[in-house]
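Continuing from yesterday's entry. The apo prediction looked reasonable, so today I'm repeating it with S-adenosylmethionine included to see how the binding region is handled. Same sequence as before; SMILES copied from the compound registry.
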Amino acid sequence: MTRNQASREWNSEAYHRLARPQLEWGLKVLDRLPLRGDETVADAGCGSGKVTAKLLERLPRGRVVAMDLSQNMLQTARQHLEPKFPGQVFFIAADLHDIPLDGVLDDIFSTAAFHWVPDHERLFRSLFRALKPGGWLVAQCGGGANLARVRERAIALMSRPEFAPFFAGWQAPTHYEDKIITADRMHRAGFIEVETWLEEAPATLSDRQEYKEFLATVTLHRHVARIPDPAGRERFLDELARQAGADDPPFTLDYWRLNLSGRKPKD
Ligand SMILES: C[S@@+](CC[C@H](N)C(=O)[O-])C[C@H]1O[C@@H](n2cnc3c(N)ncnc32)[C@H](O)[C@@H]1O
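Holo prediction written out below.
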């Protein structure tokens, strides 16, 4: 596996087990997607397929195109979804910047993915192209002050002499946009009936162990991957868990979500 491929990868089985907050948010976003039950809908950045399964349950006569850049995520999603939804779910290894579909999707759904996609101008143009006229984009991603507390703590830790050499040239793998800039980008891509808004969505994990595993698998997995030795990774996570243990409530991630929806004009 090349360095470039490795940087796209996730521990998909651990993600599947731990991504409880993402499932809860995903269910609420699904409620905002108007469906008859016979459409072809993409899950853009489907991950391990936990939320995709809930989308499939709402499409008894329809189909889902599950798209992701990570081969691990697609493999886990396939294992979980194919036996339960035979012939109803199709998997595409694709970069959301350049979706290889043109005007074929009735709607696009996406949760917890867009903040991992670097270029949002390209992202929205690509999503717009893939939709049929009249199709909806209904999505949610990290936005605004998402995870500001834990990111600030991680940055302070990364500059300590023990860890600093591993973070030379570091560029944050995620970006958290605001509602006005996102609405402008969606309009520029061609979307109408655009709505964007931010909401606070803190997630409290059950204990220190789950908090550390969650950081290592989800929130800070790219940070942790820069530290070569397992003992160093443990020290990095231990320090963040020590600080989070003193918060009220303890082991709480300060999530903010950016909701967005918009429609491709009918003609
Ligand atoms: C935090 S997971 C969310 C997965 C799922 N939507 C959920 O809510 O559980 C983010 C997903 O976005 C995918 N992703 C990140 N950048 C991507 C890109 N440029 N194109 C396609 N998928 C991407 C990742 O591989 C990962 O599976």
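Comparison notes:
- The chain has a mean pLDDT of 96.
- The pocket of S-adenosylmethionine is lined by residues 10, 19, 22, 26, 45-47, 50-51, 68-70, 73, 95-97, 111-113, 116-117 (CB under 6 Å).
Will overlay with the apo model tomorrow.
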